[in-house]
Structures are given as structure tokens and as C-alpha cells.
Amino acid sequence: MDVHDGGAGSPQGPNTSREAEAETPPARETVPRPRAELPSPEPASRAEDADSEPLPRAGHTDPDGAYQADSVNDANDAGDAGDAGDAGGAGDAGDPAAGLVGGPRRPEPRTGVAALSPRYQVGAALALAVVAVTVCVHIGMVFLHVAPSNTVTKTHGKAIDDWIYPEFEQNWKLFAPNPLQQNIAVQVRAQVRTVDGGSRTTGWYDLSAQDGRAIDGNLLPSHTQQNELRRAWDFFTATHDNGNRPVGLRGALSETYLRHIVMLRLERGGVAGDGGVVERIQVRSQTTNVTPPKWSTEKVSMSPVYRELSWWSVPDGETEGGTR
User: Fold this and answer.
1) Is the pLDDT of residue 306 over 80?
2) What residue ranges do the domains of the chain occupy?
3) How far is 165 from 246, CA to CA, in rounded Å?
4) Longest CA span, the chain
5) Which residue has the higher pLDDT, 242 or 20?
6) For residue 4, is pLDDT > 50?
7) How many whole angstroms separate alpha carbon 315 and alpha carbon 117?
8) Burial of 228 by CB count in 10 Å (0-12 exposed, 13-18 middle, 19+ buried)?
9) At 306, which helix (H) or strand (E)?
10) What residues contact residue 242 under an 8 Å CB cut-off, 6+ apart?
11) Cα 302 vs. chain centroid, distance in angstroms?
12) Which residue in 257, 223, 222 sits closest to 237, CA to CA?
């Protein structure tokens, strides 16, 4: 069809362009619209959106259109974040190990008794049980020893005494109501048979003074130096009357114990000399009152008091510390 035929879809001559210009409103003198208002193509993938640079906002040019476009973009971003969160949650729910970093943790190494083999663990448990039982028995025996007389001590008094004496004896000499206010020294002399068959008697050896000299200046004195001789003498006086006669079965035991300690001291000091043999010994105690303080009005005698025992014969097997 010819363009001048006047069809419905054909222009109507020269007046057509003028009418179109009359109908079209005059264009405003503005800056061209930003790219955000242009129809954007379908995003190929989310990775391409992340890699592409963000478009500049055009709020200063066309507030209505720009802000509307920004709202749509923010909504799309929020939807993408929600989808990603849902996908991550689903992955966590389906895979229990998804939250672990670096795989499963290694168990920590065992220490102490747990690191031992089962056999040694049983041995350690048995040793601990034995120690615990021994400590409990000892505490119970000491309690019954210092407790007032009761049914248990009357029934099992011998077993309690055998456990306590002489190593674990308890007394109240250092405490109220009457603390010890005396110095007690244990002394001994010996009758020695010499090599030529003669006999001689030594002077008095102050064994307590020897212990005192060994303790002075010693930061870690031994239990033997501090308590052995003193406890032996206390054991003897507790089991003998004022006439030095034994009281009960423990009297003979206390004599043997004291004599053995004294012989060890004499042999250690070389009292018998070369070739000599100690045949008899005699023990005594020297008791001296402690000087009262200056503010005290108490009057005490400072003269020593002696308690002298009879001569004891030394068995052959007890010489040289009981080695023969």
C-alpha cells in the first residue's frame, strides 16, 4: 500500500509530525536519568551481582524514582540474605559435623593414676587403701590412749598400750595445769673389764648434754637426738615406783629399752677402750629446777636432785650395740 493512501497505520501527510509535537509536553531541562531507572537485564547469577560494581545513587536528581529504586534493591538484598540463611540452616540441620572446624577434636592425654595401666592402677588403689586404714587405726589408738577411762580402754587396754608405747606415748608435761619446770639429765657410768683382766669404773657421762650439743646450731636435728633418750627415761619412770621397782609387765620392757639405748651410746663413744668390755652399767638422773622469772615471787631450790638406779649387768649379746 502506498504511504499516501491514508491507511490506518500510515502517517497523514505533513501535519502528522506537528500534531505529535503539539501533543507531547515540553521536555524539562534536567540531567539525564541515572542508570538505576533504566530497565536492567535479568541477572545471570548472584556471583555476577557480587562482582559488579554498585551503581551510583541518584537521589539528588530524582528523589522519587531514585529512592524507590533503592528500596527495591534493598528488599532484593534482604531476600537474598534470607535465602542464604535458610540454606545454611538446612545444611547445618542435615550435617551434624558442619559446625565443627578442623574436624573432630583429639582426646586430651591422661595424667596421674589414670595414665597407668590397669594393673598398676589396682596396685596404687591397694597401697592407698592400706595407708588410709593405717592412719585411721593410729588416730583411733591415740584417741583412746589420751581419752578418759571407758569401756573400750578397759577391754582393749593392752592392745592400745602395745600400739602406743614407747614410740607414740602421749603426756601433758608441756601443757597446763602444771607444765614441766625442771631440767632432767640422764647420766651413766660403766664398769669395764680391761685387756689385762683388771676392772675399772668410769666417771659419769652426761648423755643429755651430748644430745644438747648435737642439737645446738643444727637447723634439722634428728628425732633420735631430740627424743630418744628423754622418752626412754620417761618410759622407765612411768613404769617404776619411787623405789625403782617395776610396776606391771611393762616395767621389765622399759629397763631393757633404756639399757639398750645407753649401751649404744657407750659403744659409740668408745668407753671400753681397745680390747675392753663393758660388764655393768649404772644410770641416774639429775633434776634441776628452772630458775623462776624475775617478776615471780616463787622460791625454789637450785640444788640438783639425783635418782640413782642399781647396777645392771650387761648380757653378752648386748655389747657392741647388740651385734654379738
Assistant:
1) yes
2) 115-164, 173-322
3) 16
4) 176
5) 242
6) no
7) 54
8) middle
9) strand 305-308
10) none
11) 51
12) 257
Cα distances (angstroms) measured from residue 45 to each of 73, 86, 164, 257, 317 = 15, 18, 93, 103, 109
Tens digit of each residue's pLDDT (9 = 90 or more) over 156-200: 988 998 898 877 877 766 665 666 788 999 999 999 999 888 999
CB 116, CB 124: distance < 8 Å? yes
* CA 235 to chain CA centroid, nearest Å: 39
Residue type at 119?
Answer: R
| Burial bucket for residue 77 (CB in 10 Å: 0-12, 13-18, 19+) | exposed
Residue 16 CA to residue 30 CA, distance in Å, equals 28
pLDDT digits (tens, 9 = 90+) for 200-251: 999 999 999 999 999 998 888 888 888 899 999 999 999 999 999 998 889 9
HSE-up (13 A, CA, CB side) for residue 296: 7
- Residues 24-71: pLDDT tens digits? 555 555 555 555 555 555 554 444 454 445 554 544 444 444 444 444
The residue count for the chain: 324
